[in-house]
Amino acid sequence: LVFKERTEQYRHALATFRRGYLCFYFGAPDLLQHMFWRDRDPEHPAYDPQQAERYREVVEETYVETDQVVGDALKAVGPDGTLIVWTTSSSSSSAGTSTLAPRAACG
Description:
Shape: elongated
Number of helices: 4
């Protein structure tokens, strides 16, 4: 639901944007990855088979939705535009580790 609402906000911003620099942050892929990666990884210390049955696909579904948004952006910028996509996280298990990633700022 949060991703859907954020996507609607993004599409509105993209539709009304005329020129210059547009930056839009999607936090759901990062947050959901941190919350649900364990449900994809049977080796994760917090893996629970019953929970995994229900939430195993959350990360992948979010990545697919995000890819669709990036595709929309590519169409919108056209062949002469520039699209920059970045992430502040890796996409793998971080069980037992601490990762400090710099936060990117939109300006």
